[in-house]
Amino acid sequence: MSKREAAAAPAFIEAVGAEKLVHEPARLVVLTALSSCASADFVFLQRLTGLQSGNLSQHLVKLEQAGYITLTKGFSGKYPQTIAEITDAGARAIDDHWKRLNDLKKAASRFSGPKRR
Amino acid sequence: MLDPVTASRLTRHYPFMRGLAFLPVWIGFGLVTILNGLGWTRTASWEETTILLLSLLATVPFSRYYTRRFGVVRPLKGDGTALAWGVVAALVALILQFVAVINRFPIEPLLLLFAAIFFWMGWSDDGYRKHWLIPAVACFLLSIRGLVPLDRQVSHILFGVVYAGTISLACIWDHVLLVRTLKHVQA
Predict the structure, then answer these.
(1) Looking at residues B112-131, what average pLDDT do you find?
(2) Are residues A9 and A51 in contact, defined by beta-carbon separation less than 8 angstroms?
(3) Cβ(B67)–Cβ(B25) under 8 Å?
(4) Which of A9, A47, A64, A107 has its CA at 20 to 30 Å from residue B167's CA atom?
(5) pLDDT digits (tens, 9 = 90+) for B39-97
(6) DSSP assignments along chain A, one per residue
(7) How far apart are alpha carbons B59 and B65 in whole angstroms?
(8) Of B1, B11, B70, which is closest to A36 when you measure between CB atoms?
(9) Interchain CB contact of A41 with B (< 8 Å)
(10) pTM of the complete model
(11) pLDDT exceeding 70 applies to what percent of chain A?
């Protein structure tokens, strides 16, 4: 292993070992979107992710159990409405995750892999 | 599934991208201005009030459509604060506008402010909603139309058509952008 590769390894290991709860694509999109607004409802999150209701529900429950979001169930007229809101812990988690990915990108740019012809 | 960057951007802009919900108001406003310019209605008459009230009522089904089809997003507090400052700036510009009209000053401060707001809307976030640059340019040109010798009636009608027309166009484009962005979202 060259010196450059050795320097890049810790960032990579840290990023790979990063919280899998946040790194899963659907949950990453949900948390990133929720960090850009005060709150969003289930329908909007479904439109962003394209997931089936049950699947999205499972992801939201996991995030709620981790304390990253709060879910409020209510009604909008006759229709049920679930509002998701990011918590401070969730905002910190998503910020840290993006920072880790940025660090990994920087470390990877220092690493020179085998040259292609 | 949208990538996180696009999802974040769309979430930030979505509360202001419900274009069809704002459209009836601008069409109503344009219609009132044109009718007024043609001399068919008088300012603040019951006909004009009725048109504006009907256009406000027409926003309700569109608003419901967005809520059912695309959901609801509450913007960040910072965006709300920016909106509040925009309203304060509009009130100040309105006072300046009255002063300008009384003193027959050829430039309209209120339209200049709108041009600046629309320019900011079109320019911010790497030009995500760059179509708002069209009403920005239109408002700037309309704000200095006093420098060109025009018949008062023509000037009034021109204002209604261009102002409401370009904003309506931008509202429609907002809707198109929203639909296009979410069109290919799959699990």
Answers:
(1) 91
(2) no
(3) no
(4) A47
(5) 888 877 888 899 999 999 999 999 999 999 999 999 988 777 777 888 888 888 888 88
(6) --HHHHHHHHHHHHHHTS-HHHHSHHHHHHHHHHTTSSEEEHHHHHHHH---HHHHHHHHHHHHHTTSEEEEEEEETTEEEEEEEE-HHHHHHHHHHHHHHHHHHHHHHH---PPP-
(7) 10
(8) B11
(9) yes
(10) 0.83
(11) 79
Burial of B59 (0-12, 13-18, 19+ CB in 10 A): middle
- Would the ipTM clear 0.90, i.e. be above it? no
B73-74/A69-76 β-pairing: unpaired
Q: Tell which residue, A65, A109, A68, has the closest CA to residue A89.
A: A68
Residue B75 carries which DSSP code?
P
B185·A48 Cβ contact <8 A: yes
Whether residue B71 and residue A51 make contact (CB cut-off 8 A), yes or no, is no
Token pair recorded at residue B48: 């004009």
For chains A and B, CB pairs below 8 A equal 90
Strand order in the sheet with A39-41: A69-76, A79-86, A39-41, B73-74
